[in-house]
Amino acid sequence: MARITASVYTSHVPAIGAAMDLGKSTEPYWQPLFAGYDFSKQWIKENTPDVIFLVFNDHATAFSLDMIPTFAIGTADQYTPADEGFGRRPVPTVYGHPELAAHIAQSVIQDDFDLTIVNKMEVDHGLTVPLSLMFGERDPVKGGWPCKVIPFAVNVVQYPVPSGQRCFNLGKAIRKAIESFDEDLNVQIWGTGGMSHQLQGARAGLINKEFDNAFLDQLIADPAAAAKIPHIDYVREAGSEGIELVMWLIARGAMADQKLETATAQHAPTVKHRFYHVPASNTAVGHLILENN
To answer: What structural domains does the chain harbor?
Structure first.
């Protein structure tokens, strides 16, 4: 059967992708940030999965304000990097796993979560920057991504957005779906976005190190409590875009220590790497790797 072996959590700041694409990653401003992913690049080489289930939010690329699904799963066989107004990022096409994606959709919808099925979609920096941070620079023609990717888009742009508890419970349903897929696949689930940041208004540039690190502590040791954080706390403490952290709860809910109706709770996951850095552009960057035991 398929299995989730690890979860990865990372910010997906667009300026990080630009720094990589323009050859600025070794400049004094950017070098400390990229150094925080040195361990991760080696770890992913040694633990490359067959499939990544990548939770991200679209930034008005695949979806506009005319139609915003709360949860959308990509079921296509490939996804082209989007042009977000300054040309397509020079990164490889993302190849999906339609069979597993369709199976997850079937299982999760039967578990009473409403998903939008997306058979054609371009993917923006929300998805490609995490891939670049973990796998490094890849030639778009000769050096494709080393595994399949299932994009899973969450609306954290236009209110109302899903609660942390809803996302956490969804993660449990996704784990159940993956573990019932009748193929021997090594799957990782990635939660992206955040950490604290605000892009507009009087508090533009807000960064809250204390909240961010407390969230990381809770995500590791008491994710059920993190799932109960109300929307207003994210906005008040982490800025208007801090709400993106609910996507991390989907990945955490999918880890093996979260009890399901069909399985007993297991040991807490192993923390393989933890990193926090400010600022990247005007955003706090958080990163975590957890392995299932």
So the answer is: 3-291 (3.40.830.10)
